[in-house]
Amino acid sequence: MAEIAVFASGTGSNFSTIAEDFATNNEHSICALVCDRKQAPVLQIASQRQIPIIYSSYFKRSRREAEEQIINQLHEYKPKLLVLAGFMRLLSPHFIQSFNGNIINIHPSLLPRHPGADAIHNSWISGDNYLGISIHWVDEGMDTGSIIVQQAFHRSEVENLQQAEARIHELEHFWYPKTIRSILDQQI
Ligand code: GRF
Fold it and tell me: For ligand 1, which residues put their CB under 6 angstroms from it?
């Protein structure tokens, strides 16, 4: 049994599938949701599931201050792994070191192609033959850490950007919980 903390800033569909997977398999649990946006829909999902929320605003204060709050609160829970799922902030080297680099992220493109924002749109308009997802360790760069899992599909399998997006989210929701469990099972 291990605990993870999930970081998210938005909708929370990945957070939701991880929570559902953990509830079904009953092996690991989410000790907290870390969120930087007061209006993020993911907050409601956490409340409904009675998962503790660590809210840390980056507004009008330095990244250092926002991160210190997260570090202090998270250290009470001692999570084995930090899981970024649509967290729209770049973590500092200090933060990453505080958790010994035990941090993973999911990105909706085949890295190193299309890091950063708008990755699905950029993958689509680039004309790349393959689109997909990457799950990777977090380092100091923007979506640059070493790859753990990638899953791809050929662009001919979808007709438009909306279908490509749906396919990418489907892959994310299948592979992220599975990959997290596999990392935790190896760690403990
Ligand atoms: C996902 O596409 C993920 O790959 C990216 O941000 C999005 C988060 O979506 N990093 P959601 O909030 O989990 O629905």
Answer: 8, 10-15, 85-86, 106-108, 172
DSSP secondary-structure letter at 160? Answer: S
- Global pTM exceeds 0.70: yes
Is residue 188 very low, low, confident or very high in pLDDT (cuts 50, 70, 90)? low
**Encoded tokens for 168:** 């990418």
H/E/C letters for each residue in 95-157?
Answer: HHHHCCCCEEEEECCCCCCCCCCCHHHHHHHHCCCEEEEEEEECCCCCCCCCEEEEEEEEHHH
Task: Name the residue at shortest CA distance from atom 6 of ligand 1.
Answer: 86
Burial (0-12, 13-18, 19+ Cβ within 10 Å), 154: exposed
Q: Catalytic residue at 94? A: no
Residue-wise pLDDT for 101-114, tens only, equals 999 999 999 999 99
